[in-house]
Write a structure and sequence with these properties.
alpha+beta; four-stranded mixed sheet; 7 helices
Length: 321
C-alpha cells in the first residue's frame, strides 16, 4: 500500500506539472495590443471575445475598443488609449472601418500616436469584416507629423514593432520610372534614400515619385499639385488613390507613360504584383479618354526608352528589307 501511495503521488505531481506547462493563451483567436511601460513598443495580450460568434460586427468593434481603453492585466503593459482620447463614432462600409476621434487625439506625441494607431489597427483588423482602417480627427482625415494624409491602413502599414522603430532610419535603393525628355518613354532612376521604418515602402515610393526626377534628361510624370490620398497593398494589389490633381492634363507626356511610371515603380516592390489607380476613391473613370482605370495594371517595361529604341531599330530593319 505504501508503494501504491508513493506512485500515486508521483503521477499526481507529473499531472500538475504538465498542466502548469500548457500555454492556455496560444489558442486565443484575438489579441489586444498594449504598450510596454517605456512606451517604445507594442505588447499583444490574448483576449477572449465575449460577444457571440453570430453577434453583429458593431458589437464586436465596440467590445474591442472598450478593451483597448482598459488597463492591462499583465505587469509591464499599459493601456494604449489615453483617458482624454475618445472614439466619437465609427462607420463600417464594405470592409473599411472609419474611426472618428475627438480633437484631443491630435495632442498626443508622435511616438505615442504611432503606437496608438498601430495598436487600434492591428486589433480591429482581426475582425473578418474589417480589411482596412481609416482615422479621422473630428471630421478631417488624419495627417502625420509632416501634414501628409495617412489614408487607409492595414496590418502591413506598420513594421513588426513600430515603437522600437519610430526613430530608426534605414537606407534603401528605390527604382523609380520617370519620363524621357520627349515624353514618349520611361527612364529608370535608381535613388538611394533614407527613411523612417514606420513608413510603408509603398508610400516611400510614391513620395519620391511625386518629387520628380533628380537626374537631368528626365521629366516628372505626375501632374504638379497632385496629392496622394492613400496607398496600401492587399493580396498583392497596391491601391493608389490620388486627388483630382492627377487628372490635370500634361500633353507633353503621353498617357501610358504617366500610368506606367506609377505602376512600374511600385511593382519593383516584392509584395506588389498589380496596381489599382483611383481618383478620390473612384476607379471607374477613363484617363484622358484612352485608359480605363477600372482594372489593376500589371508591370509593363515595354515603354522603357531603351526597349522603344530596340523596337524602332527592328522596325527600320524590316522596312529596309
Amino acid at each position: 500500500m505504501r508503494k501504491i501511495s508513493i506512485w500515486m503521488i508521483v503521477f499526481l505531481m507529473i499531472f500538475l506539472l504538465c498542466g502548469c506547462g500548457q500555454d492556455t493563451d496560444s489558442d486565443s483567436d484575438y489579441y489586444i495590443y498594449y504598450m510596454n511601460t517605456e512606451k517604445t513598443t507594442l505588447v499583444p495580450q490574448p483576449y477572449e471575445l465575449q460577444a457571440e460568434p453570430r453577434a453583429s460586427a458593431d458589437l464586436r468593434i465596440q467590445e474591442l475598443y472598450e478593451a483597448l481603453c482598459e488597463d492591462a492585466d499583465s505587469m509591464g503593459c499599459v493601456r494604449i488609449i489615453p483617458d482624454d482620447v475618445k472614439m466619437v463614432g465609427y462607420q463600417l462600409e464594405e470592409s473599411q472601418l472609419s474611426i472618428y476621434w475627438n480633437k484631443t487625439y491630435a495632442k498626443m506625441s508622435t511616438p505615442e500616436e504611432i503606437l496608438c494607431r498601430a495598436a487600434v489597427v492591428k486589433t480591429m483588423i482581426q475582425l473578418p469584416e474589417v480589411s482596412c482602417v481609416a482615422f479621422y480627427v473630428g471630421e478631417a482625415p488624419l495627417t502625420d507629423s509632416k501634414g501628409a494624409l495617412v489614408g487607409l491602413m492595414t496590418e502591413e502599414s506598420f513594421v513588426e514593432n513600430p515603437g522600437e522603430q519610430i526613430n530608426a532610419i534605414q537606407s534603401t535603393v528605390l527604382h523609380l520610372y520617370f519620363s524621357n525628355e520627349a515624353g514618349d518613354g520611361l527612364v529608370e532612376e535608381e535613388r538611394e534614400v533614407q527613411y523612417s521604418t514606420s513608413m510603408s515602402m509603398e508610400k516611400l515610393v510614391m513620395e519620391h515619385l511625386l518629387k520628380g526626377p533628380e537626374r537631368p534628361g528626365m521629366k516628372g510624370t505626375i501632374p504638379s499639385g497632385t496629392h496622394l490620398i492613400h496607398v496600401t497593398t492587399t493580396n498583392g494589389i497596391c491601391y493608389v488613390n490620388f486627388d483630382e490633381g492627377f487628372l490635370n492634363q500634361n500633353y507633353e507626356i503621353q498617357e501610358p507613360i504617366v500610368l506606367y511610371s506609377v505602376v512600374d515603380s511600385l511593382s519593383e516592390l516584392a509584395n506588389v504584383n498589380k496596381v489599382q489607380i483611383s481618383v478620390n476613391g473612384n476607379s471607374g473613370i477613363v484617363y484622358r479618354e484612352s485608359y480605363s482605370l477600372e482594372k489593376p495594371f500589371e508591370r509593363n517595361l515595354d515603354f522603357l526608352s531603351e526597349n522603344l529604341e530596340s523596337l524602332f531599330d527592328t522596325e527600320r530593319e524590316e522596312e529596309a528589307q
